[in-house]
Design a protein that fits this description.
371 residues, alpha/beta, Rossmann fold, 2 domains, 8-stranded mixed beta sheet, two-stranded antiparallel ribbon, 10 strands
């Protein structure tokens, strides 16, 4: 059994879109509370929201966090690399969330909140169904809007990165390769130590996470980012993060992710592998999947929106220009933007109190209060 904070419960829900979704819930004891839907990213789980959920429930909300398609205890998806990857496309991920909302008999969701790869899912939920999702909060990955034109810029940048003096590759295209899952699932250090290093390397605990805007989508600019985003060409992700495995004293002091908590992640991914989550990246780097989203080109998010991340999170700047476009062009209402000190990429785990407070203030400022 997953060790859950007091006030959280775990159950399975048929979402009507082919999945039996594992969900965590808080604030379920009282009927008719405004709902907050929390969507995790990679390589995470519903469990990533465990510290924020009680804060929101205490403020009067019904809080739901699912293991999304490809993750954890959610059932009904295929992990075979050769299976139809379109099931992991953005529109079907939105169907998964919408189906869960209907299955829970919720008319409207006060806020859909997404972190990392959950951020664009939350954004498209709000973009496509503003009648259901009344507001949206994005974390770590700013949303630049639906693609306007099809291009092969990803392939080109991959070729350019490979020809640098220090040859490199982009992690999203690496994650789209057939070998990425085995590289991590069967890595020499084991899944537990791989994830410990990965989480540490992208957190505020690694002192060299000092992000800044990049001026262009060019190989030279992208290569300024840490190797968890722009990898050395001859290394896989497990090899990339291995040197950043924290020492025993650092692990003992890590309050935001204890070893017992990490065991929840490592146990889950040791069981399922990573291919389910990696299939999301395959869709993101697929021209066919991106062309599907061009149907919504120039459509803006009309519901209230905000962006929250850690001040040590390179995710804000990993796609040069996206953060600026999000702030200026993507939302019809000016979005709130918050960078939390003392947090890196895993902001809701590293600084849950700050995240919880910002979400409550955001909800209350737009009339979603149960007090």
């Amino acid at each position: 059994m997953i060790p859950l904070p007091e006030g959280l419960r775990s159950r399975q829900v048929d979402n009507g879109n082919g999945l039996t979704m594992h969900v965590l819930e808080a604030g379920f004891e009282t009927a008719d509370r405004p709902c907050v839907m929390l969507l995790h990213g990679f390589p995470e789980l519903a469990y990533s929201w465990r510290k924020v959920m009680p804060i929101l429930a205490q403020a009067g909300y019904y809080v739901v966090a699912p293991d999304q398609r490809g993750y954890g205890e959610t059932l009904g998806w295929e992990a075979d690399y050769d299976a139809d990857v379109r099931a992991f496309g953005m529109l079907n991920l939105v169907r998964d969330v919408l189906g869960l909302v209907w299955a829970l008999d919720i008319g409207r969701v006060a806020a859909v909140v997404g972190h990392d790869f959950g951020s664009p899912v939350a954004a498209y939920c709000a973009l496509l169904r503003p009648d259901v999702f009344c507001s949206v909060a994005m974390m770590s990955a700013p949303f630049a809007g639906p693609p306007r034109v099809s291009s092969n810029s990803g392939t080109l940048i991959h070729d350019q990165l490979a020809t640098l003096q220090r040859p490199r590759k982009h992690y999203q295209w690496y994650y789209s390769t057939p070998e990425a899952n085995a590289d991590m699932h069967a890595c020499a250090q084991g899944v537990h130590d791989f994830l410990r290093a990965y989480f540490h390397y992208k957190s505020a605990d690694w002192p060299d996470n000092r992000p800044y805007p990049l001026v262009a989508w060019s190989a030279e600019e992208l290569a300024k980012m840490p190797t968890y985003y722009i990898m050395d060409l001859d290394q896989n992700m497990a090899e990339t993060v291995a040197p950043y495995m924290p020492g025993l004293s650092q692990i003992a002091r890590c309050e935001w992710l204890t070893d017992q908590e990490l065991l929840v992640y490592s146990g889950a991914f040791a069981k399922t592998g990573f291919q389910g989550g990696l299939n999301w990246y395959r869709c993101a780097t697929s021209e066919a999947c991106q062309r599907e989203l061009m149907l919504f080109a120039d459509q803006r998010i009309d519901v209230p929106a905000c962006f929250i991340t850690g001040s040590s999170d390179w995710g804000v700047y990993q796609k040069p220009g996206d953060f600026e476009k999000f702030k200026a062009d993507v939302c019809s209402q000016v979005p709130g933007v918050h960078l939390i000190r003392g947090a890196g990429h895993w902001v809701q785990q590293e600084q849950p109190a700050g995240v919880g407070q910002l979400l409550i203030e955001f909800l209350e400022s737009h009339g979603h209060s149960n007090q």
